[in-house]
Amino acid sequence: MKGLLQRVSGAHVEVAGEIVGAIDQGLLVLIGVEPQDTCASADKLLSKLLNYRVFSDAEGKMNLSLRDVGGGLLLVSQFTLAADTKSGLRPSFSKAAPPALGAELFSYLLEQARGVHDKVAAGQFGADMQVHLVNDGPVTFLLES
């Protein structure tokens, strides 16, 4: 499972012109699910997301986690993260999980996140979404479980 995290000062997701998820300061995370992923993969990724130190401390060093700053977590499914781009000029999605597995694991990740963190929002799985964000830094990392 892949999570492309972006530290944001604010972000929201729209579906058909309606905001379906929004956060203030925190992390916007694009989630890619691959066929070999399991609930254990989701649990490992969630632990990383909540504890990865990407927020600045008093000295300006990245020493604080999402939990430390009490920030929001906005999860957005994005199967294109699992694309194979090594050859040719068109991505192959053979490394992406089938939609049913992707939906199941994204829902599991979201449910687990809401169980352990106060500020959790999400996009809508499989929808055509418009993601708006103010990338703080910019700070962007690709995490894999």
Describe the structure.
- With 145 residues, the chain is α/β, with parallel strands linked by helices.
- It has one domain: 3-Layer(bba) Sandwich (D-tyrosyl-trna(Tyr) Deacylase, Chain: A).
- The chain contains 3 helices and 8 strands; from the N terminus they run βββαββαβαββ.
- The protein has helices spanning 39-51, 66-69, 99-116, and strands spanning 2-15, 18-23, 26-32, 55-56, 62-64, 72-77, 120-122, 129-144.
- Strands 1, 2, 3, 6, 7 and 8 form a 6-stranded mixed beta sheet that branches.
- The longest helix has 18 residues, at 99-116.
- The chain is globular.
The name of the CATH topology is D-tyrosyl-trna(Tyr) Deacylase, Chain: A
Order of helices and strands: EEEHEEHEHEE
Q: How does the overall form come out from the CA principal axes?
A: globular
Please, how many helices?
3
Top keywords for this entry?
24% helix, globular, 145 residues, alpha/beta, six-stranded mixed β-sheet, 3 helices, D-tyrosyl-trna(Tyr) Deacylase, Chain: A, 8 strands
